[in-house]
Predict the 3D structure of the following.
Amino acid sequence: RVNSLSLPRFSYGARGPRFHYSDDAELQTHCVEVWSRSTELLHQLCAANGVRFYEFLQPNQYLEGSKPMGDEERQLAYNPEHPYRQPVIDCYPLLIREAASLRQRGVRAHDLTQLFANQSEPTYVDDCCHFDEEGCLTLARAIGAAIREDSVESGN
């Protein structure tokens, strides 16, 4: 029996309208614009309800220069064929630039992509983007510091 609320796979209701892009750069720009608008709208929604909204770009091993890796970590955490590798290479610079623009517009957007740039100890536990316990703690501390700094600046 089919649930009346379920939609057939790939139906218009499930996927929405189709978009056609002239090239990958146009697709990437569109994705970053959607992220930026969504982030700004979440910020506005939260602000209208007395809630602080924060956006954090996390580090990723496929962003050039974001983390030195030894041979052991590179074997575990870096896959030149990983499906996320090229999107990170192409889109992260756009996301970083847009996060700075959001910040100038009053959104609490923080770029943490360089958090491990001076950390040679292994941090990644897989070839996707996941951190070991110390990496998670480092990220949590950076997020906490950004929130604390914002609270001090705003007097709250």
Summary: The longest strand covers residues 54-57.
